[in-house]
Amino acid sequence: MQCGDFRVTYAADERIFDTPTPIVALLAVLAVLALVPLVAGTYWLDVLNRIGIAIIGAIGLNILVGFTGQISIGHAAFLAVGAYTTAILEGKAGVPFWLAIPLAAAVTSVFGLFFGVPSLRLKGLYLAIATLAAHFITAYAIIHWERMTNGVLGFNVAPATLFGFPLDSDARIFYPIFALVIPAVFFAKNLFRTKVGRAFIAVRDRDVAAEVIGVSVYRYKLLAFVISSFYAGVAGGLMAHHSRIVFPDAFSLLVAIDYLAMIIIGGLGSILGSIFGAVFMTLLPEVLKLSATSLTGVYPNAFGLIASARDIVFGLAIIFFLMYEPQGLARIWLRFRSYWKLWPYAY
Amino acid sequence: MNAQIVFLLQLIITGIAVGGVYSLMALGFVLIYKASTVVNFGPGELVLFGAYVAWATTLNMKLPVVVALPLTLVVAILLGLVIERGVLRPLIGEPIISVIMVTFGFASVVRGVLNMSWGSDTRPFPALFSSEPFHLGPVPVSPVHLWSFVTVMLLLAAFSLFFKFSLVGTAMRATADNQQVAQSLGVSVKGVFALSWCIATVVSALGGIILGSVRGGVDFSLADYGLKVFPVVILGGLDSVPGAIVGGVLVGVLENLSGGYLDPILGGGVKEVAPFVVLVLILMIRPYGLFGKVDVERV
After folding, report:
1. CA A255/CA A75 separation, integer angstroms
2. How near does any CA of chain B get to the CA of A275, in Å?
3. Are B98 and A326 a contacting pair at CB < 8 A?
4. DSSP per residue over A5-74, as a string?
5. Does domain A10-341 sit in CATH 1.10.10?
6. Does the N-terminal or the C-terminal CB of chain B have fewer CB atoms within 10 Å?
7. Domain boundaries, chain B
8. B177–chain A nearest CA distance, Å
9. CA distance A33 to A48
10. What is the pTM of this model?
């Protein structure tokens, strides 16, 4: 049992796992996840898949907003570029799935680089407004480049094939999604043990001071946009394959706000928080749906109210977390963990 | 007169009329920003709220307009107070991202409540003015546009006088100028915050009513008009009331002209995106806008 901090080296300070327990817990979670498709029904597999995709997207956004401090309301545009690029590469150019996802992510990174250029002159709410405008411009481009995107209607995406297996069901696409979630989490976790990650945090905490100690603020801001949009590109590509259709409304401003809400509720500047936020925001509508189903007996209209109930609960959750737990679910988890660490001998 | 010139004039006149509504909504936005440096990312929902409450009081509850209109404005004031007291006051001094997200949060709540109470179908809105166009010289003008423009100008004039001469208006200007000094001179800064939110919800509600009667119906797409506030305030300057007024009219004219002339070339929808292209350009060239205070912190 660990009863205090006894770190005497930087290496010890940077360690991801300071006790063996989380490693065991993590392996257990992974083992359970590996077995889930064998037992779970389509409904829960669909939810899990969406959680996996949301985790990748939320980590990407958290790197940009939570760690580098660049507020972006344009994440939906990144996702859209990733999804459309994947779908077009596969459908029109015949690129295989395993190559289309990284290619789409690379394209999205270049797009993110352009998206990030305003951040060189603007920060804070001016940057937020600039990314909001960029979102609308991207949406316009997608709707009106009809030859490629088929306009507002969008188009269907054929199921991908991986090593000869068609990924045509929720159970089949589950493994590729989580095979990407795991490296996404570990890359992000390790990123913040390197020079680049520390530079991001320095830029967030005080850009002038960062510049003074030799961090090139321009470079690292753009790099944050690139990494963030790379993640979004992967998530978008997976979205295209999970829903098997791409259309502009799937990437509306509300999606960008959803992702911002994930990282706020989960915890800004926390990888674990991004995961919590993604799980919370994906489960929220499902829980509402389930409770509406059980309420239909008492109140037959309940199902029709889900959409509006979701908006209300979603808004209240954001407000509640910002007021009472600004560091989000990650902070709650930390408190919970440190309480049980010494149980039953706390004090 | 040449048909092309008539077309141009028509675009400009409609643009000015719609732009006037943008000015009105931007006025509320700028007041909030000036008083408390809060950027409201839910302006569209405030517009929706006003339009829906007006629809509910006039057509649903069948109240006469003389009762319904003040009632709508009172409800709007209450909404402003609830937002300011309940949501924004606890977050004074928090990071920008928190304040931005909390405005998204209450916007979502407002949208949900409206949707739950009245559904998302298009509601016919009372036509306050006749739709028979009359001719201003050779240019046909619809009375709705003319009256909305006149109403907006009267409102803006009233607000200008209010800020210039009334005690409360002076207190608001003092707070915008320097909060500490204003407070030490006995201005209730928190009261000014609340008042600025109330004015914002009221002008947004009025904007919603005018837009509703111009369009002849209310539905959730009205919220998109609220988002036009961003190009307007960036063009005019985030903290400038005259900027909001001029910017609104300019953006209205600009989007109509770009829609009228570029739509046939680019295939529709230019009107919706042109203001945002201008927004990005202005941010890159002159982030403080036409009349804003030149103290944008450069990175």
Report:
1. 8
2. 19
3. yes
4. ----SHHHHH-S-SSHHHHHHHHHHHHHHHHHHHH--HHHHHHHHHHHHHHHHHHHHIIIIIIT----S-
5. no
6. N
7. 3-126+138-285
8. 20
9. 9
10. 0.91
Nearest to A162 by CA among A174, A150, A148: A174
In 3D space, the residue among B298, B294, B259, B289 whose CA is nearest the CA of residue B26 turns out to be B289
CA angle, residues B123, B245, B241, in degrees to nearest 5: 115
Counted residue by residue, chain A has a size of 347
Cα–Cα distance between B157 and B72 in angstroms, integer?
21
Closest Cα in chain B to A132: B276
Q: Side chain identity at B128, as an amino acid letter?
A: L
The beta-strand segments (E) located in B17-138 are 123-124, 134-136
CB contact under 8 A, A126 and B283: yes
Instruction: Give, for all 347 residues of chain A, the pLDDT tens digit.
Output: 566 677 888 888 888 887 788 889 889 989 998 888 888 788 889 999 999 999 999 999 999 999 999 999 999 999 999 999 999 998 888 888 889 999 999 999 999 998 888 888 787 888 899 999 999 999 999 998 888 888 888 888 888 777 777 777 788 888 889 999 999 999 999 999 999 999 999 999 998 899 999 999 999 999 999 999 999 999 999 999 998 899 998 999 999 999 999 999 999 999 999 999 999 999 998 998 888 877 777 776 666 777 788 889 999 999 999 999 989 999 999 888 888 777 777 65
Q: Considering only the top CATH level, what class is B3-126+138-285? A: mainly alpha
Residue type for position B103: T
In the beta sheet, which residues pair with residue B123?
A: B218
- Test mutation, A126, A127, A208, A216, chain B, max B CBs within 10 A: A126
Give long-range contacts, CB 8 A cutoff, 24+ apart: A1-8: A1/A341, A1/A342, A2/A341, A3/A342
Do you know the residue count of chain B?
299
Are B46 and B110 in contact by the 8 Å Cβ rule? The answer is: yes
Is there a contact between B149 and B7 (Cβ–Cβ < 8 Å)? no
Instruction: Inspect the interface and report whether the beta carbons of B104 and A261 lie closer than 8 Å.
Output: yes
